[in-house]
Amino acid sequence: MRIPLSNVLILFLSFACCYCSSKADGPPDADRPNIVLIMADDLGYHDLACYGNTKINTPNIDALAEAGLRLTNFHSNGVVCSPTRAALLTGLYPQEAGVEGVVTAKSHRDVGMNLDHYTLAEYLKDAGYATAAFGKWHLGYQAKYGPLSQGFDHFKGFVSGNIDYFSHIDQEGYEDWWQGTELNPEEGYLTELITDHGIDFIRAHQDSSFFLYLPHGAPHYPYQGPEDEAERSIAGDFVVGGKREDKDVAYKEMIESLDKNVGRIVQTLEEEGRMNNTLIIFCSDNGATPNVGSNAPYRGYKSQVYEGGHRVPAIFYWKGKISQSVSDELVLSMDIFPTIADLVAEDPVNTEKTSGISVAELLLGNQAGLTNNERTVFWRFKNQKAATKAPWKVVLTPDSAELFNLANDPSETTNLKDSFPEIFVELNESLKNWEEGLTEELISN
Ligand SMILES: [Ca+2]
């Protein structure tokens, strides 16, 4: 049967109008939460007081953890910055999103994450949310690969991996503070500046649902506290990591500033009467680096596929909805998109198209039927690979092939490959099958 074109057009227009008018710019819906997603940069598993640190004071983040859900088995999908950001925004493995390595200032100035991927910001924008990203992008240097091309209404921040906390110059000596698609410098200590914009955005959206993404620079180098001063200048001569010799003290100052600024966001939400319908997520993008941060009790650091490279803090807080608890359920960065889609329930994202899964039931305290820990999950960076299926984990590097039982040996000290060869082979096969299914062209290094 042939349907007249005019009828098809009418049908399409009816659907489009219905869809467009459903939520856009309407009043906040009490049942669907605003989303505040705060991500620290290179913050290690053991860098917050609520994860056992006794030297760094983080009372505001601890308060969210104390009242909400604190995860002890949350993992970044990447072991460096860009891949985790790709997974977070697409619900895919970084490799499926085409971003396996760092989008570097030297080699990747003309590339970015494939714009064809449907992002968390696009999903929420389509659901009628106001969307904003303030902070570190790191998924493409060109404006065409920037946040405004990936579903964000507003962007102020930087696109490289790190900038001076005061002059906002990247590590190659380029100016790197953007407002929308234009370079447009602003004054201010990075962590406070990002927060200032977040606060302005919350206050400006009293009458709409909003998604506020705050990917902080802290505590990534250069190690500069809020009382320090600018070190980098355009094309200047500077120490990339920062000139302070007491880097561990600077690191503490940076995390304590981050904590204070998380507190400012919470206070703003309280003042605006938005706490009851706002989901706050706090997480890190990869493990800490050696010398300054701590991933204790886990082995390894940022850029390694041992647990210390990817097991990171993650806290979910939603007043009156998420009960206080600590969970060892397996959750990854790529689960955040399907989880938010599930909670917003506008039109749940097609989970067949994401590798992440919704953990909404875990957040809402429904433990029955959880399958998080039954998954086999993968990491790959440069020439290192890992696969986990609880309690087992395979780690492959050019120099080693190891099997660990994380339940007995969370610090990955004892290689059980020769004791359990069949388990090693099975996980290795899973890893190979996953790799064979990867088809996206990769940004890697
Ligand atoms: Ca990072």
Can you give a write-up of this model?
The structure is a single chain. The protein is 27% helix and 17% strand. Residues 1-27 have low confidence and may be disordered. The chain is globular. It has two domains: 29-368, 3-Layer(aba) Sandwich (Alkaline Phosphatase, subunit A), CATH 3.40.720; 376-436, 2-Layer Sandwich (Arylsulfatase, C-terminal domain), CATH 3.30.1120. The strands form three sheets. The chain has a ten-stranded mixed sheet with strand order 7-6-5-4-8-1-9-10-2-11, sandwiched between helices. The protein is α/β, with parallel strands linked by helices. It contains ten helices and 16 strands. A hairpin with a 2-residue loop joins strand 6 (178-179) and strand 7.
Nearest-angstrom radius of gyration? 22 Å
Q: Estimate the global geometry from the Cα principal axes.
A: globular
Q: Determine the N-to-C terminus distance.
A: 54 Å
What would you give as the CATH superfamily of the largest domain? Alkaline Phosphatase, subunit A
User: In what order do the strands lie side by side in the largest sheet?
Assistant: 7-6-5-4-8-1-9-10-2-11
Query: How do the helices and strands follow one another from N- to C-terminus?
Result: HEHEEHHEEEEHEHEHEEEHHEEEEH
In the predicted model, the low-confidence regions spanning at least 5 consecutive residues are: 1-27
- Give the count of helical stretches: 10
How many domains in all? 2
Helix/strand-derived class?
alpha/beta
CATH structural class of the largest domain? Alpha Beta
Percentage of residues assigned to helices: 25-40%
Amount of beta strand:
15-25%
Give the overall average pLDDT.
Answer: 92
The CATH topology of the largest domain is given as Alkaline Phosphatase, subunit A
Just name the CATH architecture of the largest domain.
3-Layer(aba) Sandwich
Number of strands: 16
Looking at how many chains there are and whether they match, the oligomeric state comes to single chain
Ions and ligands: calcium ion
Largest sheet: 10 strands, mixed
